[in-house]
């Protein structure tokens, strides 16, 4: 089974402010809005700024299947781990966000409702007709 890597931009510095503007406004991904992948197993690589590594206890990955209305914790890693694995239980659109827990227990952002969407992934392991694809975008060839 092949495992693919998907970049989660917000993990690059692991410096997350307490509150970010709400960008959870798009009901369907546009071609530039979501990464389309053809597997249910993938990993988010994590790079932590060496200057912050000693200050971070944990990085949490949150996932939403309803465009940010609700969030479910789907993984967590320590600063020494290089990626967060994810298994999609079914095809569809997944929104991902991160939350950083500092060594002193400070959570950034503090509340799950305040997390910022970092990556949208459209998992498509079965063929989908152009008319059923969100945004009318034809599926990528395998």
CATH class group: Mainly Beta
The overall pLDDT average reads 77
What is the terminal separation in angstroms?
15 Å
CATH architectural grouping? Sandwich
- Structural class call reads mainly beta
Radius of gyration from the alpha-carbon trace, in angstroms: 16 Å
Largest sheet at a glance? Answer: 6 strands, mixed
Low-confidence blocks of residues: 9-31
The geometry reads as globular
How many beta-strand segments? 9
Portion in beta strands: 25-35%
CATH level 4 superfamily:
Immunoglobulins
Helix content: under 10%
Number of helices: 1
- Count of domains: 1
CATH fold name, please?
A: Immunoglobulin-like
Written as H for each helix and E for each strand, in order along the chain, the element string is EEEHEEEEEE
What does this structure look like?
This protein is mainly beta and 142 residues long. It has a single domain, classed as Immunoglobulins (Immunoglobulin-like, Sandwich), CATH 2.60.40. The chain has one helix at 50-53; strands spanning 4-5, 35-37, 41-45, 56-64, 72-77, 83-87, 92-102, 107-108, 119-123. The strands form two sheets. Strands 2, 4, 5, 7, 8 and 9 form a six-stranded mixed sheet that branches. Strand 4 and strand 5 form a beta hairpin. Residues 9-31 have low confidence and may be disordered.
Question: In summary, what is this structure?
Answer:
The chain is an all-beta fold and 142 residues long.
